[in-house]
Amino acid sequence: VKSVSVMEGDSVTLNTDDTDIQRKDQILWRFGHKDILIAQINRKNNKSKCHEDNADGRFRDRLQLDHQTGSLSIPNTRTTDSGLYTVTSSSIVKLLNTFNLTVYARLPVPVISTGCSVLRLYQNYSLVCSVLNVGHVTLSWYKGNSLLSSISVSDLSISLSLPLEVEYQDKNTYSCVLNNPISNQTQHLDITQLCQTCSGRTCGDISIYLLKHGLTILYLVLISAAAAGFLLIVAAVMIFCTCRKHKKANHVGKYDLMLIHL
């Protein structure tokens, strides 16, 4: 089985690779595991025919036969053309050739969405690379030429996304790459150009905002601690005074009892 891969919309030609093809009485091309007859060449009457309504009509007006070589051409390929193709001759039982054709959909350019997030009192960039309606692809994040992360799908996926967290001070260039075995699409991103508004503040404003609010929070914490300490001191003084008052009362009671005895 020969593997053949093309992009959607391209043309592909499947050859018999038989040097003695001219002596074959009849050439038959079949598609799929059910061996659906899609084209044939009859050398007895020197005619060729494409059965374009077979295979659910997917090949209608798109099959071309070369009467001399017996090759089958499919212009303007579609993803539904993917599958197994076999060519045989009526004069021999053996297969002349077998092809496993894979037609890959044209890849869209990945979309990178950005957002600001506040982590550990400094700004990070939350990046998400995403694509829609893709299959048999891999989506990857690169930092320069180094692979950071990737995700793959084998079947058709409605959406595919890959997140990435990048520090504000990072000056590297990042790329999101979508690829299949025969093509790729890349979206580049320069972190230094990401200093855009986030929640109504620029990146510099966010740093100042965090600094001011961080000091305010610290100030409130100190005030709360001082207030709590003051309340503890007041409570301790009140307890001390109460205990001392009770002790003095006990002494007076003992003195009165001594006078009575005398």
Question: Can you describe what's shown?
Answer:
The chain is of the alpha+beta class. The chain folds into three domains: 2-104, Immunoglobulins (Immunoglobulin-like, Sandwich), CATH 2.60.40; 111-196, Immunoglobulins (Immunoglobulin-like, Sandwich), CATH 2.60.40.10; 201-262. The chain has one helix at residues 203-261; strands at residues 2-7, 12-14, 26-31, 36-42, 47-50, 64-65, 72-74, 83-89, 95-104, 111-119, 122-134, 137-143, 146-153, 157-167, 173-180, 183-190. Strands 1-9-8-3-4-5 form a six-stranded mixed sheet, with no helix packed on it. The chain has a four-stranded antiparallel sheet with strand order 13-12-15-16, with no helix packed on it. A three-stranded antiparallel sheet has the order 2-7-6, with no helix packed on it. A hairpin with a 2-residue loop joins β12 (137-143) and β13 (146-153). The chain is rod-shaped, with a radius of gyration of 40 Å.
Average pLDDT, rounded to a whole number, is 79
Secondary structure class reads alpha+beta
Low-confidence stretches: 197-202, 204-215, 255-262
| Biggest sheet descriptor | 6 strands, mixed
Major sheet strand order: 1-9-8-3-4-5
Q: Supply the CATH architecture of the largest domain.
A: Sandwich
- How many domains is the backbone divided into? 3
How much of the sequence lies in strands comes to: 35-45%
Q: How many DSSP H or I helices?
A: 1
The backbone outline, from C-alpha atoms, is: rod-shaped
Write down the Rg: 40 Å
